[in-house]
Amino acid sequence: MNFGPIFLFLIAAGGVVFVALFLNRMLAPRKPNPEKLSTYECGEEAVGSPWIRFNTRFYVIALIFLVFDVEVLFLFPWAVNLKSLGMFAWIEMAVFIIILSVGLAYVWAKRDLEWIKPDSDEIQAALRQSSQTITDK
Amino acid sequence: MIISLNHYLVLSAFLFCIGVAGVLTRKNAIIIFASIELMLNAVNLSFIAFARHWGDAGGQIFVFFSLVVAAAEVAVGLAIIVVLFRHKETINIDDVNLMRW
Amino acid sequence: MNITYNLPAIGTQLVLGAGVILVLLADLLTGKKNRDVAYQTTLTVLVLAGIICVMKWGSAGAGFGGQVFGDGFASFFNLAFLAIAFLVVFNSPNYLKRNEIDHGEYYMLILIAVLGMTFMSSAGDLLIFFLGLETMSISLYVLAGFHKSRARSNESSLKYLLLGAFFTGFLLYGIALIYGQVGSTNLADITSYLAGSANPLGGYMGVGLALLLVGLLFKMAVVPFHFWSPDVYDGAPTPVTAFMSAAPKAAAFAAALRIFYDPAISLGLPWDKTLWIAAALTITLGNFAALAQSSIKRMLAYSSITHAGYLMIGLAAGNELGASGMLYYLFTYGFMNVGAFTIAWLVNRRGEGNYLLSDFAQLGSRNPVMALLMSIFMLSLTGIPPLAGFFGKLYVFSAGVKAGLIWLVVIAVLNSVVSVFYYLRVMVIMYMREEEGLKDLEKAPTVAITAILCGLVILLLGLFPGPLLDLARESVLSLL
């Protein structure tokens, strides 16, 4: 294959972006004030720094998604070739999916699909506290 | 210009070396991990190129499995890094030094 | 498309795989109360897999179009992995409860690791080998960090993971290059390519084989790829260390024999010269580092590096005696190490992360049976006849002499003499050193049974080495 035109296209595309940004800089009036320099959050006042640590629960959820997402990869070539592969391949894939479901059941039973883990100590303490206050009232 | 097998292999070797350099020079455990992923994916590129060269599906199948292995490794790796972070409040590998040979 | 699947070829693996699911579900259903069900299921699965392995010994043949082999070689190693795993699991509950990490996942992960190892030993294709290796490694990464609340365990796990994944990259690159040269990842195709080629290392092949070897040497913890192992062994929970120092090492050697042990290959490659240097360095470095340790766990870690070096002599020799000697050595070495580590954690009295040789003080009078067993393990690791460790070394060394590696064997023998010092130091401490305020050992019947079993096996295989060696020789013949 000849990739020359694609290379030219890439250069042209880069050039367009550069020219657009450069012209904008040259032509636009610049009268900054504090209101203009603040972060635009759909009209809301921005509160605090965006550079905070993410909750580690994001990682756990993302990891669970990632693993199942990638495992499903095997389904595509299998589905395309199912007719020629025959019964044994069907059973193999059934076993594979059962193993995946057991994994999902495990995650579910360990309550890792819920955002707040009900069995973590702090949550339990907080729950006890709040039910205490309710009964006190 | 014709893109031949060697072009892919050279690109793959370059990517692999970038990954190795990343592992050897960076201090952040997650960046190191990303560099390792880069190494694995560079190898995958080689596999695909060779599979195309030989007209054989074996290399592509290998890529499937190596992707899944990489995903499992990432899942375990990030979990370990999260646990480490809960202990040390850092993921700089220079601070992981309780044991020294 | 007609592929003979031949399920009996992977009978052991099927049992283990089903066992993993079973243990996971059993623990989910009963785990709230205790771990007994998971524990008993795991032991049952290991025994069942062992029975299948013995029943189908070497007769199952190739399965899945030559992707896996149920030959004698695979059976031999599978039995070794299962035996080691059984002994480790058998005495684990005590340790897990003592350290408050009594989770059902422990048993599942051990089973998964064993499953990976069995695929490594029976692989007929680099793909299966790679998958087995990763299945084993990933579960070991988790097991090393199983003690979540201890920083040392986290550290051990992170180091193992980062370095392991790094070297996986090299190993995979090696496989890719071999595939690029041969056009197949099947071991039989690769062997016939190497045998039929005028310049076997030409093209991508030389680099590919070298990178593949680097990946394997890392798993064996051979110098210069050993640096991870003392730290990882030190930080991991001790039963896991016992498991890691015995089984994965055997699995890596099994895979190396599978891939590289063939006269056609070993004749054409600069095999012995490469491994010569690695073996000599490994033995010497491991030995002298072990001399300097005050922690029994680190001492055993360095000693396991040394033993990997001794095993390398068998690999470098590349002859039948060397290979069968390695099989014998690996089988018996597992029992010595599991026994020694098990007694080490029972004796330890300062808590995890503080294993000292001085914990063994007065063990001779406090608990004569344990002291005797520990002495057996130490003497066997040194290689004193008539214990099993002696014959392992003897076979491997004589294979080295036969292959003309005289100087390497001389270095190894001299190092064995040095190793007497640190192994016997444990015995000296047990029988000679007086110390104040020592408590009695915790009563732990499973630990005692494990140690006694290990001791008996070492004694019996040392007194009657013939049958096991014959079995090892037969197994090696099935490789060709």
TrEMBL record, chain A:
> Main localisation, per the record?
membrane
GO cellular component terms, semicolon-separated:
NADH dehydrogenase complex; plasma membrane
How it assembles, according to the record, is: NDH-1 is composed of 14 different subunits. Subunits NuoA, H, J, K, L, M, N constitute the membrane sector of the complex.
| Family as reported in the entry's similarity comment | Belongs to the complex I subunit 3 family.
Q: Where would you find the membrane-spanning parts of this chain?
A: 6-23, 58-79, 85-109
Q: What does this protein do?
A: NDH-1 shuttles electrons from NADH, via FMN and iron-sulfur (Fe-S) centers, to quinones in the respiratory chain. The immediate electron acceptor for the enzyme in this species is believed to be ubiquinone. Couples the redox reaction to proton translocation (for every two electrons transferred, four hydrogen ions are translocated across the cytoplasmic membrane), and thus conserves the redox energy in a proton gradient.
- Family matches, as PANTHER family: NADH-UBIQUINONE OXIDOREDUCTASE CHAIN 3 (PTHR11058:SF9)
Record keywords: Cell membrane, Membrane, NAD, Quinone, Translocase, Transmembrane, Transmembrane helix, Transport, Ubiquinone
Annotated catalysed reactions: a quinone + NADH + 5 H(+)(in) = a quinol + NAD(+) + 4 H(+)(out)
Q: Where in the cell is it found?
A: Cell membrane; Membrane
GO molecular function terms listed in the Swiss-Prot or TrEMBL record: NADH dehydrogenase (quinone) (non-electrogenic) activity; NADH dehydrogenase (ubiquinone) activity; quinone binding
Pfam families tied to this protein: Oxidored_q4
Protein name, UniProt field: NADH-quinone oxidoreductase subunit A
Topology with respect to the bilayer: Multi-pass membrane protein
EC number(s) from the headed UniProt entry: 7.1.1.-
Automatic annotation (TrEMBL), chain C:
PANTHER family from the xrefs?
NADH DEHYDROGENASE
- Tell me where it resides: Cell membrane; Endomembrane system; Membrane
Spell out the subunit comment. Answer: NDH-1 is composed of 14 different subunits. Subunits NuoA, H, J, K, L, M, N constitute the membrane sector of the complex.
Q: What is its EC number?
A: 7.1.1.-
| NAD as UniProt keyword | yes
Q: What transmembrane ranges does the database entry give?
A: 6-25, 37-60, 72-92, 104-120, 126-146, 158-182, 202-228, 240-261, 273-292, 299-318, 330-348, 369-392, 404-424, 444-464
**Single GO MF descriptor:** NADH dehydrogenase (quinone) (non-electrogenic) activity
**Annotated catalysed reactions:** a quinone + NADH + 5 H(+)(in) = a quinol + NAD(+) + 4 H(+)(out)
Q: What does this protein do?
A: NDH-1 shuttles electrons from NADH, via FMN and iron-sulfur (Fe-S) centers, to quinones in the respiratory chain. The immediate electron acceptor for the enzyme in this species is believed to be ubiquinone. Couples the redox reaction to proton translocation (for every two electrons transferred, four hydrogen ions are translocated across the cytoplasmic membrane), and thus conserves the redox energy in a proton gradient.
Q: Which organism is it from?
A: candidate division LCP-89 bacterium B3_LCP
Protein name, UniProt field: NADH-quinone oxidoreductase subunit N
Q: What is an annotated GO biological process for this record, any one? A: ATP synthesis coupled electron transport
Bilayer disposition of the protein: Multi-pass membrane protein
What Pfam family is a match for this entry?
Proton_antipo_M
Keyword annotations for this protein, in alphabetical order, are:
Cell membrane, Membrane, NAD, Quinone, Translocase, Transmembrane, Transmembrane helix, Transport, Ubiquinone
Query: What InterPro entries does its record include?
Result: NADH-Q_OxRdtase_suN/2, ND/Mrp_TM
**Does Transport appear among the keywords?**
yes
Gene name on record? Answer: nuoN
